[in-house]
Amino acid sequence: MLTHPMPDPVALQLGPVAIHWYGLMYVVAFGLFLLLGRVRIKQPHIAAQGWKKEDLDDMLFYGMLGVVVGGRLGEVLFYQPAHFFANPIDIFKIWQGGMSFHGGFLGVLVAMSLWARKSKRNVLDVWDFIAPLVPLGYAAGRIGNFINAELPGRIADASLPWAMLWPGVEGPRHPSPLYQALVDGLLVFILLWMYSRKARPRLAVGAVFTLLYGCARFFTEYFRVPDWQVTVAGLPITSGQMLSLPMIIAAIAMLVWTYSREGRAPARA
Fold it and tell me: Which residues does the annotation say bind a 1,2-diacyl-sn-glycero-3-phospho-(1'-sn-glycerol) (predicted)?
């Protein structure tokens, strides 16, 4: 059995300014977006669509706003509305953690839609382009949660080699942020990157990302202490699973639509 290493959440102190590990993970996420984006631009079917490095820099700005605003509002509305409405100043303390992926996901969709309109690009092409650039950034965020000792896992068998004593929580726990970094982040990235290396029908890549993440998150939620849960047909459904179900259903519908429209959507060059 392991013990949470409890690293200092402050990575660097510069006088009165504290740079937190959680914030640095966002820097890592945005850096990965640019790095992977430059690789993706060189793929023949993407290069044929006329994507440029300058597009990445512009999209990153919009994406950052979408992630931060959407992620924080999602945390406020989906998970802790009572706390934040009682303590509204806490909404702005994003360095303490508390960012909803589902909220950030919606925020990025809106931001990329605005960028697509400004750039006169088809919004579905934009979503397809950025989808493979997202999962590793998500994984970085979950590592930030782990450093902050957030999102404790459910009780684990003490004989599990990686069961972990979590600060402030009784009993050995599953290190759920690491599970989500590996499954929802790294595994989804590998599968999606392989799928997106070839030309696919418009919206297919974005839909596959939505499906993979929704399914992965639904699974890893079984190892995480839920923020809240409900019972449906006698089965407990956590908050994360409730928010992931619409993603799974929408993704399946999008895949059926994109592969069946006009008989079969043609792959783009």
Answer: 142
Closest residue by Cα to residue 27 from 67, 81, 72:
67
Q: What 3-state DSSP class applies to 10?
A: strand
What does pTM read for this prediction?
0.88
The stretch 164-184 carries a mean pLDDT of 96
Q: Which residues sit in the known binding site?
A: 142
177-198 burial: b if 16+ Cβ within 10 Å, else e: bbbbbebbbbebbebbbebbee
Residue type, 250: A
Instruction: Please give the Cα distance from 186 to 225 (Å, whole number).
Output: 21
When pLDDT is averaged across residues 67-77 and rounded to a whole number, the result is 83
Phi/psi at 229 (nearest 5 deg)?
Answer: -150, 160
Query: What are the pLDDT digits (tens) for 179-233?
Result: 999 999 999 999 999 999 999 999 999 999 999 999 999 999 999 998 888 888 8
Closest by alpha carbon to 33, among 25, 45, 22? 25
